[in-house]
Amino acid sequence: MSQPTDFHTQLNSMSVLLHSFAFNLTKNTEDAKDLYQETAYRAITNMDKFRPGTNFKAWLFTIMKNIFINNYRKKAKANTIVDSTDNLYYINSTVDAIANRAESSMMMKELVTLIEKLDDSIRVPFLMHYQGYKYQEIADYLDLPLGTVKSRIFFARKELKDLIGKRYTDMALDLD
């Protein structure tokens, strides 16, 4: 894909798949169109970063997924309440107490650390499944057979279970 024309041709041939994936992520037609346009724009402006001989479809889907995640995070931050009153009236006006979730936050950080230790071949499908992708979507995205995806997710779970067991066995031995 050395010519820009070839790049645009391949991008156009992926249009239907990209629109489907965008709708799958956003669940909204207008948002899906916006996501597709942003993906196409970024792909075109970064076409020099695409390495010929690699998976063009996966490259485009990764761009789209990253744009979607970044937009989601921006929306989540935009919904954060900032109280600028002198006495913090709005923040202190709630009737219900908020539970301290520090312990579960710490466990999640430990789990993320263990997941990062997994080999990419099983970590990527596992994380996609965790994020809500269906097996077939993962298979299509990674260009793998459905059975391979299911096996890799199974092996990721098994390895995580072993890592967790080993971690807490080691911790118990340290306490003795």
Describe what you observe in this structure.
This protein has 176 residues and is mainly α. The protein has helices spanning 4-13, 15-26, 29-45, 56-78, 89-92, 102-116, 120-130, 135-142, 146-175. 74% of the residues lie in helices and 0% in strands. The longest helix has 30 residues, at 146-175. The model has no long low-confidence stretch (mean pLDDT 82). The protein folds into 2 domains: 1-84, RNA polymerase sigma factor, region 2, helix turn helix motif (Rna Polymerase Sigma Factor, Chain: A, Orthogonal Bundle), CATH 1.10.1740.10; 102-176, Arc Repressor Mutant, subunit A, CATH 1.10.10.10. The chain starts with a helix and ends with a helix. Keywords: Sigma factor, Transcription, Transcription regulation. This is RNA polymerase, sigma-24 subunit, ECF subfamily. Residues 17-77 form the RNA polymerase sigma-70 region domain. Residues 110-160 form the RNA polymerase sigma factor 70 region 4 type domain.
Annotated CATH topology of the largest domain: Rna Polymerase Sigma Factor, Chain: A
Count, helices: 9
Oligomer: single chain
| SS strand fraction | under 5%
Q: Nearest-angstrom radius of gyration?
A: 22 Å
How many structural domains does the protein architecture include? Answer: 2
C-alpha termini separation: 61 Å
- Fourth-level CATH superfamily of the largest domain: RNA polymerase sigma factor, region 2, helix turn helix motif
Largest sheet: none
Top CATH class of the largest domain: Mainly Alpha
